[in-house]
Backbone:
């Protein structure tokens, strides 16, 4: 399982990046290269100034791009070209491996020829809110699962759900299927994962490969994130149309309500409904972005550079 590269897009990095690199250095499998694709060099230079970054992290390669160049698909696609390893792992700079076995467990399913992608379980940060904490357990349960084309009828969109917050790829299959899409506002991981499923390969959810990663989004942030989600669904109908999507959201809301009642915090249902409304409104508008004035689209979007 050697010859693994880790690829991490970086923007305005904090000291948390050092924690991530330290945890990667403790993994039980050797990492050949850690490739950082950093947006705007000045932010990165400010972080590492006065540190012994280059002496400490000798296997780190940094490529700088401008904010104008960043794209969820193209930036990662470009980063993969910097790797020559048979396996590569995509991560984000705010995801921290929970233990030293994370990479070894994540890569393990790729030893089977039919598996093209594996992705890790995301655990909440200590400061994570109750609702988001439950959402993490809903999307990333305790049980591992292998997913294939046969699961489309049962799982719907969850069949090709995979997250580049922490996901491993078989390079030969990745190249054979054309890699990440060149331009997308969001969802480059799921767009590629759909091609994996359609080609007859499998996706592994590896529950014992764990990273700590969560957000405490406001209602407006949820709206903007889901607006971009809706845009990606509208731009790639061949990937998302005809697949159950909204039903998963409804199921999450119902189960979260039951959870809040069971832990005797029913007043949080008001916040749940507000955030759920923001998510739905954002997704609804995103799916119809072509009918919305350009200025409004930029206001609603979380990725404003995409529209320039």
Residues:
């Amino acid at each position: 399982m050697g010859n693994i590269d880790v690829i991490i897009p970086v923007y305005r990095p904090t000291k948390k990046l050092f924690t991530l690199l330290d945890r990667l250095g403790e993994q039980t499998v050797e990492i050949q290269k850690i490739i950082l694709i950093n947006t705007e060099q000045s932010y990165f230079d400010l972080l590492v100034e006065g540190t012994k970054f280059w002496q400490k992290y000798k296997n780190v390669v940094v490529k700088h791009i401008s904010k104008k160049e960043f794209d969820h698909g193209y930036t990662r696609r470009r980063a993969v070209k910097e790797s020559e390893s048979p396996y590569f792992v995509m991560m984000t700079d705010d995801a921290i491996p929970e233990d030293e076995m994370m990479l070894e467990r994540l890569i393990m399913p790729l030893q089977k020829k039919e598996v093209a992608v594996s992705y890790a379980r995301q655990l909440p940060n200590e400061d994570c809110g109750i609702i988001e904490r439950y959402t993490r357990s809903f999307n990333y349960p305790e049980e591992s699962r292998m997913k294939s084309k046969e699961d489309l009828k049962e799982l719907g969109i969850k069949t090709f759900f995979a997250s580049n917050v922490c996901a491993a790829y078989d390079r030969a299959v990745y190249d054979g299927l054309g890699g990440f899409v060149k331009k997308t506002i969001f969802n480059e991981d799921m767009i590629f994962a759909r091609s994996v499923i359609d080609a007859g390969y499998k996706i592994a959810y590896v529950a014992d490969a764990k990273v700590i990663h969560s957000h405490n989004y406001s209602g407006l942030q949820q709206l903007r994130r889901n607006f971009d989600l809706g845009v990606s669904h509208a731009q790639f109908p061949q990937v998302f149309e005809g697949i159950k999507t909204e039903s998963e959201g409804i199921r999450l809301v119902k189960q979260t309500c039951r959870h809040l009642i069971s832990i005797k915090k029913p007043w949080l249902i008001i916040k749940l409904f507000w955030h759920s409304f923001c998510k739905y409104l954002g997704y609804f508008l995103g799916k119809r972005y072509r009918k919305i004035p350009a200025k409004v689209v930029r206001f609603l979007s979380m990725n404003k550079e995409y529209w320039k």
About this structure: The mean pLDDT is 94. The chain is about 45% helix and 20% strand. The first strand starts at residue 4 and ends at 11. The radius of gyration is 19 Å.
